[in-house]
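Lab notebook page, bench 4
Experiment: in silico fold of construct C2
Operator: M.H.
Input chain length: 168 residues
Purpose: comparison with the prior construct
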Amino acid sequence: ISHAISWRATFFSAACWGVVVFWFIWRWVPYVAALPDNGFKGQFRFLRNRAPWLLIFATMFGNGGIFCMYSYVSPLMIRVAGFSPEAMTLVILLAGLGMFVGNLVSGGLSDRYTPERVARFAQGIAVVALALILFLAANRWAALTLTVVCTTMLFAVSSPQQVLILEN
């Protein structure tokens, strides 16, 4: 939109969607009573347990690895895999589609199985895909496929991790 019309049109569009989102939140999200006030230190008592730390580290290292790879997706795809700069729109679109599918599918899988199993499975696939990118990045179609797999797993692991964070 910003290249075709103006950067202002992009910001206006985002602002309009923000208003729509606020309206839906106001209409659909139920009222939840406030939690009891346990003081500032009380808000962090949950960190005495092992589970929240494992979730924090899994998020930091597991998701962080994919974010690192994705930060360099353009130079990786252009300089190493051999895609043209003009093809990057399609590459990013496919990566975004993977994010959408990963988020959508993992929510249902977390209901059917446990969030722990879905998160472990998605993290495992992401680790394998990241390792394969290291060795197969020069192959254009392997690099594209593995990038989409990584972005899919990034968002596939997010839903179960959020559930686990809330539970713990």
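Observations: Residues 115 and 164 are 7 Å apart (CA to CA). The chain is about 80% helix and 0% strand.
Next step: discuss at group meeting.
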